[in-house]
Amino acid sequence: MNRVSTLPDFSRLEVAMDQWSAPFWQAGGEHRLVMPRCTACATFRWPPGPFCPTCRAKAVAWVPPGAARIHSFTILAQPGADKDAPPQWRMPTLVEFADAPGVRLVSVLIDAPCDAVAIGDPVEIVWQPAANALVPVFRLRG
Amino acid sequence: MAKAAAAITGIGSTPIWFRGESAPRTMPELIGEAVMAAVADAGLALDEVDGLAFFAFGFDTALLIETLGLRAVTFAHCVSSFGSGLAGMLDLAAMGIESGRARNIVCIGGTQQIGRRLGQAIGSFAATPDNIFHRIAGLGGPGQALALQVRRHMHRFGTRREAFGEVVIASRAHAATRARAFRRTPLAMDEYLASPMLADPLCRLDFCLETDGALAFVVQSAERARDARQSPVYILGGAQVGTADWGRAFFGFQQDEDAFASAGGGPVARRLYERCGLGPADIDVALIYDHFSPLVVMALEDFGFCARGEGGPFVESGAIRLGGAIPVNPHGGHLSDAYVVGMTHIHEAVEQLRGVAVNQVAGARTALVTGGPAPTPMTAAILGNQP
After folding, report:
1. Is the torsion defined by CA of B306, B312, B314, B319 positive or negative?
2. What is the chain B residue with the closest CA to A110?
3. Which of A108, A104, A116 is nearest to A71 (CA)?
4. Do A126 and A110 touch, CB atoms closer than 8 A?
5. CB B65 within 8 Å of CB B119
6. Angle, alpha carbons B194-B196-B198 (nearest 5°)
7. What is the pLDDT of residues B18-44, one digit of tens each?
8. Which end of chain B, N or C, is less packed with Cβ atoms under 10 Å?
9. Is A53:A101 a contact under the CB 8 Å cutoff?
10. How far is Cα B218 from Cα A41, in angstroms, rounded to an integer?
11. Does B289 qualify as catalytic in the annotation?
12. Is A128 inside any structural domain?
């Protein structure tokens, strides 16, 4: 099978955010991926929230987490546009980062040959328009 | 080991229906019927019920008390997790008895999937700053999220799909002898391997049944249980453990490497064995929460029946069959018997320890019941037919 993962249509997706996650989305608007790191003990926290899970301090610095690679993934068949259309392949994928130990980000892997993807493959972050923000998706690094 | 303070003295169940087919019955009606059956099994009158224990699954305590016309409920409490709280419900009931808060506590649980399927419920929740990432990824249900953990287990340990297949095939073999089981047709490995992928590496047959029904269990003091109508099944111990990394279970994704490729039961297993003074070698039959078949493989590791990473070969060796090293879910479990958020697992544990199960494990004296790998706290309990 020559299955290739698709880019979902995010045009109607309203991104819910709060004061803790807003900086993530603001940086994303500039095509930059940043993750919150505790300014007191340097532990990364995810999802964003009021306290460091290690030292319970509040303040964070938003920093680039470094190179991303696949920690795990799945492959979902999605119905085609109409009942006779072939299924589309969506790949929910979890990535880990070279410079942000202990946190992982989940999104979707696009434009990938489904049957050739492997855990450990390096990916890049690509920002795609949703209704009110740009959202991060993954693409295999060539 | 401390003597058990409490025992299950009555069990009751409604019929089980395929999802949605319990309509137009309502959940309070189903629960009420299960409670009445359990109370009758215990040889009690409904007016003697003075306690309710359950786990977070959307029950309205006040409505139940009204519906059943209970007059003096002095203990009505809920374990603060979903299917993960299943076994904690028994621990909670034992606490109520031990502390003298109530004398006849009924544990209740049920599910009715009318117009709303649990497996798709997450996709219908309101968007939040956290679950927005699951939306973007396309993770609409627990099976899809779990697929990420299962793939990691296969990657790390070389676990084969055949191991998950054996879990399903064994559950079918167990269910085959039970009239009420929903999936009783024997299954061959090549049929399993040909089952369509729903969330690769999980195929359709790795997903559990969706059924409606309710069950109830009466818990009394061990002392009163000695005079009970049925042979008592003692609550030898229960444990409830919450950990930050397992937090939202399959939807957390931040666990350390061992917990990520697990059924989330490691910490609760350690505490349970410590509290009971027992270990995996002391367990005669295991009722393992199996809403997805790979969870059995991983829970066997969590609860020490085999080493981390060896769940696949252990299962493939035939260990979970009747007569195997640790018979698992002799009633067919959620995969082949019925799915009522684990309640049928407790029912089966009681029947095993009364010695009246359809697929009786010869001489079974102890049973492990695990809560569902779901949001924390995780819970587990050990039951026995001797105090």
Report:
1. positive
2. B137
3. A104
4. yes
5. no
6. 145
7. 999 999 999 999 999 999 999 999 999
8. N
9. no
10. 50
11. yes
12. yes
pLDDT, tens digit (0-9, with 9 covering 90-100), for B231-283: 999 999 999 999 998 988 999 999 999 999 999 999 999 999 999 999 999 99
- Chain A residue numbers with beta carbons less than 8 Å from the beta carbon of B200 are 74-76
Q: What is the pLDDT of residues B354-378, one digit of tens each?
A: 999 999 999 999 999 999 998 899 9
- Strands B105-111, A104-110: pairing kind: unpaired
The structural domain count of chain A equals: 1
Domains of chain B, first to last: 6-115+208-384 (3.40.47.10)
A47 vs B151: CB contact, 8 Å cut-off?
no
Distance between B145 CA and the closest CA of chain A, angstroms:
8
Identify whether A90 is part of a domain.
Answer: yes
CA distance B58 to B60: 7
A114 is in which domain, residue-wise? 22-140
Chain A contact for B135 (CB, 8 A cutoff): yes
Q: What are B133's two structure tokens?
A: 């990432």
According to the model, what pLDDT value does residue B120 have?
Answer: 67
The reply to whether A9 falls in a domain is no
Residue whose token pair is 């019941």: B369
- b/e code B297-309 from CB counts within 10 Å (16+ = b): bbbbbbbbbbebb
Mutate to test the interface with A, among B120, B128, B132 (most CBs of A within 10 A): B132
